[in-house]
Design goal:
By secondary structure, the chain is of the alpha/beta class. It contains seven helices and five strands.
Length: about 180
């Protein structure tokens, strides 16, 4: 891993396993932060727009900028920081990455991808979390179907154990394979 306090953007569609893997990965480091971008959306108490709706663009840009600022703050304090969220290439990935770089931090990227059926099944099994419209999940899932210049950062998952995925990510971080 590079010598500065790096930030890993761990992204993928709903239900792919980002949050589980991010928590396991952060636990492998002596000083680490697992920053769940979804929480930042939940802080909005008035004027909230579901993030997958077309009219949410201004809100989403603001929230993701705040997420990038928080990640930069933790990294500046010396924490390995995992940003766990739906950071789609061509939408929010580049602005978040660029903000982190501008703050002087190395940025790594891992995109988790699984079959749509697996993602839908995982979302349905979540307890205590309001359901997301399956059409919205499919729309977001499509945003990760082709990642262009970031395709080399994709880990195609099937039924891999989250511990194995976290271990693989740790190895890729160590060898610099995830540098964005």
């Amino acid at each position: 891993m590079r010598g500065d306090a790096p930030v890993l953007i761990l992204t993928g569609p709903p239900g792919v396993g980002k949050t589980t893997v991010a928590a396991l990965l952060a636990g492998r480091f002596p000083r680490a932060v697992h920053l769940e971008a979804d929480h930042f959306f939940r802080y909005i108490r008035a004027g909230y727009v579901e993030p997958w709706r077309p009219e949410s663009n201004e809100q989403n840009r603001a929230v993701m900028g705040i997420v990038a600022d928080a990640a930069a703050g933790y990294a500046a304090a010396g924490y390995f920081t995992v940003v766990d969220g739906i950071v789609i290439p061509g939408w929010f990935l580049e602005p978040v990455r660029d903000a982190l770089r501008a703050a002087g931090h190395g940025v790594d990227l891992a995109i988790l991808r699984a079959p749509l059926s697996a993602c839908l099944a995982r979302v349905r099994r979540r307890e205590g979390i309001p359901g997301i419209d399956p059409e919205a999940i499919e729309h977001v899932w499509q945003g990760f179907a082709e990642c262009g210049e970031f395709e080399s950062h994709v880990l195609d998952l099937g039924d891999e154990n989250p511990d194995e995925v976290a271990a693989l990510l740790a190895r890729h971080l160590e060898d610099g394979r995830l540098a964005a």
